[in-house]
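Q&A log
Question type: sequence-to-structure
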Amino acid sequence: MNMSLLDNIVSHNEQFVENKQYEQFLTSKFPDKKMVILTCMDTRLTELLPRAMNLRNGDAKIIKNAGALVSHPFGSIMRSLIVAVYDLSAEEVFVVGHYDCGMTGLNSEKVLAKARERGVPDKLIRMLEHAGIELDKFLTGFERVHDSVLNSVEVIRNHPLLPANLPVHGLIISPETGRLDVITDGYEYIASREQGKTRR
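Response status: OK
Response body:
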C-alpha cells in the first residue's frame, strides 16, 4: 500500500521531533529584524526569498498570498500587518512581488471554468453572482506586477490604523536569480512627505 502525502509528512515529522532537528530553528515569536514581509505564495520563493534577503528563522514575519496583494483595507492581510506592527514589534513593512507571477493576467472566466470542471455547480456560481458577490473582481489578477506592488504599498501607507512614520517598501524579486528591484523606498517616501509638510 502506497503512503499518502499526509502519511509521508507525519512519518517525517515524527523523526524530525524525535531527533530534535527543531533545535536549530528555535527563536521567539518577535521578528529579530523588526520587519514584516508581504509576498507571494509562489513555490519558487519558499527558500529563495529569505536567502536573497539575508533572513534566517526568526528574523521576519512573512505573510503570503496569491500575488502579494492587499485587496481590501480591512481584510485578513491588513489585519495580519497591523498585528505584526503593534503586537509583534515589526517596525518596517516590505511588499515583495515577483516577476512571472501567476496573478498576472489571471482571468476569472478561466478560474470559474476550472471550478466547474472540478464539480462546482454552475447554479451555485450564478447564485453567488446574484447575491452580489463580484466573482469577476474577486478572481481577477493584475496586468503588471510593478503596479500591483505600488497599489499594495499605497493601501498600507494610507491605512488609518497604521502610523504615518512606518516605512513601507515595495520590491520585486526575480524568481530565478533572487535579484531584488526596489520599486519604492519607504524611507524616501517618509522624508519627502515630511519635506512637503515643512514647505506649507
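Response note: The chain has a mean pLDDT of 94.
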